[in-house]
Design goal:
The structure is a single chain. By secondary structure, this protein is mainly alpha-helical. The chain contains 9 helices and no strands. Helix 3 packs antiparallel against helix 4, helix 4 (55-66) packs across helix 8 (117-124) and helix 7 (97-113) packs antiparallel against helix 8 (117-124). The relative contact order is 0.14. It binds fe (ii) ion (2 copies). Residues 36, 40, 68-69, 146, 150 line the site of one fe (ii) ion (FE2).
């Protein structure tokens, strides 16, 4: 029997560790990692339906997409900065967040939500071409969904900043009445 998006994802979106993503800013503006992950999962779900994936693979891809950035550390925080300082030169580049967070997310999500190998591979390679080559159809659709959503979010953030600047610099602009 086919499931809708909510039925496929409700155990993950209500999990306390996943809810923590609401407090992680992502791609600027008012966006969070939670908003980004849900939007990527919805986009992946639509792509999977469009490409007529088998029902169990639609579910697998949608859940993998929801967890693709579930790496579980603050990459802008002091702890990650100290971790990075253990490396120099090329090794430091190789350990930058952009290169490693897919593998971390795959490991953490796989442990908590019992993912199969294809889902883990899809999550690990979602940063392609900064990560390894996608190995299966779910991996290609996940990296595509992530890039589509990320581009939209970055575009919206630019608009959000421009609106903020305009509000500050346009002379004679009245504040709305309370
Ligand atoms: Fe990512
Ligand atoms: Fe992402």
């Amino acid at each position: 029997m086919s499931q809708n998006f909510q039925e496929m994802t409700e155990d993950i979106v209500s999990h306390p560790l996943f809810l923590q993503l609401k407090s992680c800013p992502h791609h600027g503006g008012e966006n969070s990692l939670y908003i980004h992950s849900v939007a990527t999962a919805k986009c992946a779900y639509r792509l999977a339906r469009r490409f007529r994936l088998r029902e169990e693979r639609v579910r697998a891809l949608t859940r993998a997409a929801l967890l693709h950035d579930f790496f579980g550390y603050d990459w802008q925080g002091e702890r990650h900065r100290r971790f990075m300082h253990r490396f120099t030169g090329w090794q430091r580049i190789r350990h930058m967040h952009a290169f490693i967070h897919g593998a971390h997310a795959a490991h953490r999500a796989g442990r908590l939500f019992h993912l199969d190998q294809r889902q883990m591979d899809a999550i690990a390679s979602h940063m392609f071409p900064l990560a390894s080559w996608p190995k299966n159809s779910e991996a290609w659709l996940l990296t595509l969904a992530d890039k589509m959503v990320a581009s939209k979010e970055v575009g919206e953030t630019v608009g959000w900043h421009v609106k903020g600047w305009c509000r500050r610099i346009v002379p004679g602009r009245q504040k709305p009445e309370q």
